[in-house]
């Protein structure tokens, strides 16, 4: 694993925008615009490294499924903050019926520097983004710059294959709706959903657009409807389950939830059982089930335990995106147990390449490792100001 600098392509911004990355720049607090898509550098991996990472991701995914089963079978959903009996029942039923429910993708965030085993930082299993740049502009950048190289990137082909495989699970007759929140100002959620919609169409599915805010409720039929008053029988939503089950339509969502078996009227993708994996409490459960595993970091729910005096720790809210609410506590500081539910994970600082802190985003599609996206940040927390940097296998 090596970081190299390179001259960006002429007119790179227009190029990546035409490839679906309509948010190539990030506005920083000082009101300056700086590249989010950063092709002034790239990372090069050996084939052996990528094959080892791919094997690690496959193993981590299987371990996460085992942890999800443990949470359900041991009635431990409260450890994830799932205390509403109706939500817990929906998650449990979805887990038991998961073979009947489409589940498309997820992203592991890993600490890796090329010299030791990759370490799991978290699993974004419900609403992961940075998909567009990993699947499309990154691939075309490689074809332009390194036509004889390769890339860990089978995202597009695997997504199309996943929709084809799971199409029989979808309710017949109505289109598969793709929904994002209109509150998204950058266009990232919109383009993520647009790209997934495109892959579903290439798989032969009938699809349609809708924003979460446009979804209507028909009190006469007791069903969700779109702007044309068609029943929404299935919907991919880039909208977290913790919002879907707590906003003012939450009761209707639970009343009409199709968890397989034909008992409900609306099937949501990702399915409700993904709440078991998209929660930082999963990190502590994994450490409990697999103590000392080389790809895990010690993590706890009841406090940092001995981490303050040994390695230091990171306190992570159980739910959240883009590093929001994450705090870093170096070794030697007094332990601080936060009031909000957190996972306390051993501090393993992101490796720095040319003063850039890097995190690997390893994708899983239909339960199989599928590709890699790399983000760099100035600080140790990968936040909304991170930069996406392409990679190659040389």
Biggest β-sheet, characterized?
6 strands, antiparallel
Poorly predicted regions: none
What's the helical proportion of residues?
25-40%
Q: What is the tally of beta strands?
A: 21
Question: What's the mean pLDDT score?
Answer: 95
Rg over CA atoms: 21 Å
Give the number of helices. Answer: 11
Give the CA-CA distance, first to last residue: 10 Å
Backbone structural class: alpha+beta
Give the CA-based shape.
Answer: globular
Strand content: 15-25%
What does this structure look like?
By secondary structure, the protein is of the alpha+beta class. The protein has eleven helices and 21 strands. Strands 5, 6, 17, 18, 19 and 20 form a six-stranded antiparallel sheet that branches. β2 and β3 form a beta hairpin. The model has no long low-confidence stretch (mean pLDDT 95).
